[in-house]
Amino acid sequence: MTSFDEYYKARLKKLETIRKAGINPYPAQSKRNYNCFQARHDFNKLKKAITLAGRLMSLREHGKLTFANLQDETGKFQLAFKEDLLKKDYDFLKKLDLGDFIEVTGKCFKTKLGEKTLAVEKLVLLAKSLRPLPEKWHGLKDVELRYRKRYLDLIMNEKTRRVFYLRSQMIDAIRDFLTDRNFLEVETPILQATPGGAVAKPFVTHHNALNTDFYLRIAPELYLKRLIVGGFEKVFEISRNFRNEGISTVHNPDFTMLEFYWAYKDYNALMELTEELFTYLLQRLKLETKIKYQGKQVDFKTPWKKITFTDLLREKAGLDITKFNTREELLPFAEKLEVNITPEMGADKIIDEIFKKKIRPQIINPLFVINQPLFLSPLAKKRMKNEKEVERYQLIIGGLEIVNAYSELNDPIDQRGRFEEQQKLRKMGDEEAHPLDEDYIEALEYGMPPTAGFGLGIDRLVMILANCSNIRDVILFPVLKPKGAVLTDKGGKGRVMLREEALILLKRNLKNANLFKHTLAVEACMKEIAKDKGVNKEVYGLAGILHDLDYEQTKKTPCKHTLETAAILEKEGVRDDIIQAIKAHNEACGGVCESQMDYALRAVDPTTGLIVAATLVLPDKKLKSLTVEFILKKFKSKSFAVGCDRNQIKSCEKLGYTIEDFFALCLKAMQRIDKELGL
C-alpha cells in the first residue's frame, strides 16, 4: 500500500514538472460561466461551449478516453476527456490528481447511458492539490478528523454540506420572521464586566490596556433588557455565547442562541409566537410537519400540549416537589432514580438534575413545560396565583431543551433579593450561580415595562431538523482539545510500578480468570486513550490493570472496593495519581474524579464489560466481528447488560469524546488483544 508520504512526494514532483513547463499551477483568475447545477438544469438549452470549474473528484481512463467527475458547491458534473479534442493537452491529464481544481471548456452531450457530460476542449489547472483526499489513504471514517479538519468533511460528505446549508437557511428564516414583525436586530458586548443572563460558569480573559479581567458572554439577556429600559420595545440578537462547562453530545463551550425581548407582553403571548415561528420555519425550509429524529417521529402539528413543571415531575418521577424542602429529603429520591448527586448540589440543583436526566429524555413531541419553581428561575416574574412559581416555560423537543422563555422580572427590589440568594449559593461552592449585577439593577430602577423574553438554542434545533445526534455535527468548527495537548492530569509523586510487578500482584489477589481478562481489557483501553491524548501510556495502563485488585475480597462490601487496593499500592510506593484514579472509579466508596485519568478509568471500566457482552451475542462470538454501531445499539437497550453503569460510561464526555468515538477507541484497543481475552 502506498503511504501518505509517497503520495505527497509524488504530487510535489508533478508540481515541479508543471512549473518547469512554464505553467502557473495557481493562476489568479477563472473564466467559469456556469456551475454544475446550472449545467444540469439548462442542459437541453446549451448549444455553445460553456466553462465549468471545480475540484476533480474521480478519473476513469479508457484508452484514449477518460471520464471524470467535477465537483463545485452546487454538485457534480461528468467530464469526458477525448484525445482527438484535447490533442497535446490530453497528456496533461497525467499531471492531474484527485483534489486538483481545474477549469474545463467544452460542449455538453449525453453518453449512451444517458449521463449528462461535458466534452472537454480546453483544460486549465487552477490549483494543484498536494495532499491526497481522505479516501485515498485511510478514508474519512475518523469522527474526530471530520471535526478537526471540517474542510475535508465538506469535500467528502454531501450530507455534511446539506446540514450547514440547512443551518444557514434556518437562521435567515428566523431573522426574516422577526424583522417582518418589526423586531430590531441589535448587538450586545461579548466582553462583560459581570457575566449574567444564565446560570453558568463563564470564561475569563484579561484586557491588557485596561489591566482588567473580563468575562466572555454567557448570554445577551441583561444587555437586551437594558435596551427595553432605554425605550426599544422589540429587540433580538442571534449571538455566540460562551460557557465554561463540560463537552457532550448536546453541549459545546461556544454555541449560538437567538434571544428576543418583547415589551408589554407575557409568556402566554410568547407561547403563541413560538408555535407561529416553528410553523413558519418548517414551511420556509420545506420540511414536513412530521419528521424523523434519531429513530423517533416528532410531530410539530400545533397547538402543542402544556404541562406544569410540578405536575410533570409528579407524573413521570413520582416526585411531589411541593412536599420537599431540603436537600436531605431529596437525596433518597435521587438515589432511587439513579441520579448522580455531588456534594455541592443543593435542593434546586437536585430537582433540576432529576428533570434533565430522567424526565426530559422521555419527551419527544413539542411540549411546553410551564410554571417552573421560583428557585430555578432567578430572572423570571412570579406567578400571581402562586408566588413559589414563575411565569416561565421550556419547550422540549426530542428530549432536548430548545426554548427557555418567561415573563421578565422587572421589580428591582425583588431582583436584588433573587441575586442575593444566588450569592449564598456561590459562597457554598456553586460556580454557576448568578452573580450580583449592580448596574443591571440600577437600570431596572429607572423602570422597565412588562416584558416577555425568549431564548432558542440554534444548534440544538438544527440537530433536530437535520436529524443529527451530536451538536458537533451542526457546528462548523466545534471546540476540541488541541492535537497533542497535555491532559489536565495533576501528575503524581511515587513510582510507576513495572507491568511485571503488577501482574504478580494480580495473580496473587485474583483467582477468577474472567476478572483477570477484564483487567487486561481495561489496561488496553486506558493505554489507547493515553496514546490518543499524547500522555504516559504506562501510567494509564497501570491504573487500568490494577483497578480491580481487591475486587474478590470486597465484592460483598462495595463501599470498601478500591480502598484495600489503595492501601496495597501505597505500601509499594506507587504514584498517588494512579491510586487516586483507582479510588475515583468506584463511586460507592465516595470516589470523586479530579483528573482526566480519573474520568478515563471510570468510563473504561463498564465500557469493556459492555463490549464483551455485545461480543458474546454475536453468532461467532468474535471481537473482530463487532462494530461500533452494534455496541451503540446495545448501549441504548436498557434490557441489555442491565448491570452496566451507563452514566459512568458517559464520563468519557469529560474527556471530549462522544459515546460513539469512545466505543470506537475502546473496541480498537480490545481487538488488538482478542486472543488474550479469549474472544
Textual characterization of the structure:
Helices cover 40% and strands 18% of the residues. The chain has 679 residues and is of the alpha+beta class. The chain has 3 domains: 4-137, OB fold (Dihydrolipoamide Acetyltransferase, E2P) (Beta Barrel), CATH 2.40.50; 167-247 and 254-304 and 365-453, Bira Bifunctional Protein, Domain 2 (BirA Bifunctional Protein, domain 2, 2-Layer Sandwich); 499-677, Hypothetical protein af1432, CATH 1.10.3210. It has an 8-stranded mixed β-sheet with strand order 6-10-11-18-17-16-15-14, sandwiched between helices. A 5-stranded mixed β-barrel has the order 1-2-3-5-4. A 3-stranded antiparallel β-sheet has the order 7-9-8, with no helix packed on it. A hairpin with a 2-residue loop joins strand 12 (290-293) and strand 13. Helix 6 crosses helix 14. The longest helix is centred in the N-terminal third of the chain and has 22 residues, at 158-179. The two termini are 29 Å apart.
Number of structurally distinct domains: 3
* Radius of gyration computed on alpha carbons: 30 Å
- For this structure, what is the CATH homologous superfamily of the largest domain? Bira Bifunctional Protein, Domain 2
User: CA-to-CA gap between the ends?
Assistant: 29 Å
Contiguous runs where pLDDT drops below 50 for at least 5 residues: none
| Structural class by sheet pairing and helices | alpha+beta
CATH topology title of the largest domain: BirA Bifunctional Protein, domain 2
How helix-rich are the residues, as a percent range? Answer: 25-40%
Rounded mean pLDDT is: 89
Assembly category: single chain
Biggest sheet: strands, sense, closure? 8 strands, mixed
